[in-house]
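Suppose you are handed a protein chain with no further information: no name, no annotation, nothing but its sequence. What can you learn? This example shows the usual starting point.
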Amino acid sequence: MAHSKPLFVQWLRAEIDSGKYPGVQWTNQQETEFCIPWKHALRQDSSVTDNLIFKAWAKVSGNGRVQGDSTVWKRNFRSVLRAKQFKMMADNKNDTANPHKVYRWPKDSTSPDNSIAVALSQQEPDLYGSPPNEDILQMCLTELNIGPQIEDAAAFKLPPEQQELRHQLLIGGHALPGQQPYPVALEGAVCEAGLPEQPACPMTPAEGGACGGQFAVQFLDTVNKTKEGNHFKTQYRISVFYRGEKVSEQLVNNEAGFRLIYRPQLVEPTLDQESGLSLVSLPSPTTIISQVQAEYTQRILDNLGEGFELTVAGDVIYGQRRGESKVFWSFSKFDQSRNTQEISKRQRQPLYQFTNFIQGILDFIGGKECRPCSLFLCLGEKWPDPEMRTWNKKLITVEVVLTSLEILKNMAVDGGASSLQSVDLQVSLEEMVVG
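A reasonable first move is to predict its three-dimensional structure. Written in structure tokens, the prediction is:
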């Protein structure tokens, strides 16, 4: 049976206290800073004992093969230290006698969330206990934006044809696992749904842009497979995170869109005959170790009701909340704009327009960054966070990758702007934007 991944902060404290790793120890009496050996693998005096702590985390977390490369263990360990906001106080990895680093423990490491910590610091909640504790819980749930509310009638903006989407933030730009790391020659390949895909025939930028504009031709061919007439075609890769930990990933092969709900018995996307949308369930929070986090997560899930819909009409992607748990969105999990964006419950709301992505490709050819190919959702809590809390502090977040746009973006970025500098391609793209 699969075992749940331990929480890094609690795991690390226990490992330091165990004393079983040479050189891994507290450096002050308050146990707020600790030392860890950090020896380069190419040093003549390196040994297997130098990597024991990194190997131990790779083993329990599943983020690296136990028989794998020690540099991968160390890189993953360093990444999680950064993600959990450990602060490096001293970098002595080049010290001849004692290569090591010193880290400071994060201040809020014991809190399930900063917004919840204020209430919990006064009283430990008993989720099934006396009325005073229930008041604390209700205050926390209020902070989490769960429950009915009065919608602002002005929340729904002008029709998508008359408005410009905001916050064009860069997301990704690299090939995903399993995909070719180079742009590809799309030898007429189309998946079962008629959507563009990446076959196993890579085409380097030199073979594309330098040889009669072949790359630009192939790029336009992919664009035309993505938008036939006025109809935008894509699949959706949906990744769900509970406080930064990925708990599920599913691919929806339904051009009409999907509805995000909470029905744990649905282990894979299921077509809803009435609406024509695919039903996608968020997983049960039973694997969450923290009882408090699990309780708050469950409350949000229980209030999803009919959930959240993402649909396509023409070349526009719309979002609409159906349940009581509020839903907020952005183009990026790293959005620090503080401009909270709530998705309306009154009527569907335009989130993304294909022509804006095409305009972004034209901007990329002109030297700007490529536009996003995904949407980032936060359930029950404000996003982007007005107090700049990071995405991995949120109880439930969902990333929706528009796979057709992802393929186009990877082709553009990997091929380079110069490979797309074809007059015919730019004219065709400009015609799509003008409509």
